[in-house]
Write a structure and sequence with these properties.
Blueprint: H1 2-18, H2 22-35, H3 43-52, H4 56-69, H5 74-86, H6 90-103, H7 108-120, H8 124-137, H9 142-154, H10 158-171, H11 176-188, H12 192-205, H13 210-222, H14 226-239, H15 244-256, H16 260-273, H17 278-290, H18 294-307, H19 312-324, H20 328-341, H21 346-358, H22 362-375, H23 380-391
Length: 392
């Protein structure tokens, strides 16, 4: 009698599940459990109900009880893995998915789940292997090829990434994520025409896709099509006016058209949204440098230094400002700090050389440019500077 009543509650719970009423679905499952405390069949259902309600903490003990009761049920073991994933307990999560695979080795979902977990742990080579197995079991599953592509991107195998994103698009040509991933892979290959092609396809399919317009703008930018880049960024900003990266990109494009005031305006908008963006302060300072507004440039670089005091590039920029103001001693001091922080960058020794030369310390100038050449022997500017110093 109790079993019949418990099953009636489970049947009622299923009706609520069909209507996506998860609260009542759970309510009736718990009623079934109250009637029969040792009725193990309801435990995985309760765990799944909590999971669907995104209450992972409460889902966990029920899933553990279910696995203890049904250790050979791959679906129950997989559910425990799913809950551990949401709780970011990735070590146990991987164990669960591998166990599910052992129990049911032809289920591609379990391989994909293991792949996602390993990807989250940044174990990209292992993740790639699991997604490849999943794609062999279910060869028409677009998301598996997409994840193979993402693993290849992380492993810097961009040509293989492109190949797999194309496969994903074959099986699901309307998914904008696959198109943007493909565009980014082409960007990594420096094939900007192809990048632009797929970014445009993205916004054609999804006209309000901000990222698609941004990628199109980036492609135009690298193709030196700055007017088109500006228009693409402006469209993206209309769709998402709170995305600081769009204003930064727009500022960059405007700077290449020598529209420094408009670039400054957009960098400031970006910084209003993200006041701790060091790279944007550097870009802002560079615009003030070009306008010969050195006090403002210095203020931008000092703000960047406040946020990132070990950044060699910032000291180099501060050195540049002092150099432009003919304060060569201060310029030298900043260039030397930059070289101490990043002794592998020849540019800083080149700048040290120019400062020494302006201070009349010719021997130090020659020695510094030699260091720059050692670090970057193919740099024509360094060699030309060395020859110039030798001839004077």
């Amino acid at each position: 009698m109790d079993i019949e009543l418990a099953n009636q509650y489970i049947q009622k719970a299923d009706e609520y599940l069909d209507n996506e009423d998860f609260e009542n679905h759970l309510k009736y499952l718990l009623k079934a459990n109250d009637i029969l405390k040792d009725y193990a069949n309801v435990w995985p259902l309760i765990a799944k109900a909590y999971y669907l309600m995104e209450d992972y903490e409460n889902a966990m003990p029920w899933a553990q009880k279910a696995v203890d009761a049904f250790p050979s049920d791959a679906n129950t073991v997989n559910l425990l893995g799913d809950i551990c994933y949401e709780l970011e307990n990735y070590e146990v999560c991987v164990v669960c998915y591998k166990r599910a695979i052992d129990l049911e080795p032809k289920n591609s979902t379990y391989y994909a789940n293991a792949g996602h977990t390993l990807f989250r742990r940044e174990e990209f080579e292992q993740a790639l292997q699991y997604f490849q197995i999943a794609s062999r079991i279910t060869p028409n599953h677009a998301s598996y090829y997409n994840m193979i592509g993402r693993c290849c991107d992380e492993l810097e195998n961009f040509s293989e990434a492109v190949e797999n994103y194309h496969k994903a698009i074959v099986f699901d040509p309307e998914d904008s994520t696959y198109l943007t991933n493909l565009a980014l892979a082409y960007k990594n290959l420096e094939k900007y025409d192809e990048m632009l092609k797929y970014a445009k396809k993205c916004v054609l399919i999804e006209p309000e896709n901000t990222y698609g317009y941004q990628l199109a703008g980036n492609a135009h930018f690298w193709l030196e099509e700055y007017d088109d880049a500006i228009q693409a960024y402006k469209k993206a900003i209309v769709l998402d006016p709170e995305d600081e990266t769009l204003y930064k990109d727009l500022g960059d494009a405007l700077s290449w058209k020598d529209e420094y005031d408009k670039a400054i305006e957009n960098y400031k908008r970006a910084l209003a949204l993200d006041p701790e963006w060091v790279r944007c302060y550097l870009s802002l300072g560079a615009m003030y440098d070009l306008k010969e507004e050195y006090d403002s440039a210095r203020a931008s670089y000092l703000k960047a230094r406040e946020l990132d005091p070990r950044n060699a590039e910032i000291y180099n920029k501060l050195g540049d400002v002092s150099f432009y103001e003919s304060n060569y001693e201060d310029a030298l001091a900043h260039y030397q700090i930059a070289a101490e922080l990043d002794p592998e960058d020849g540019l800083y020794f080149y700048n040290i050389s120019t400062a020494f030369w302006e201070l009349g310390e010719n021997e130090e100038a020659v020695n510094s440019i030699k260091k720059a050449i050692v670090l970057d022997p193919d740099n024509e500017d360094f060699r030309a500077r060395y020859e110039e110093l030798q001839s004077e």
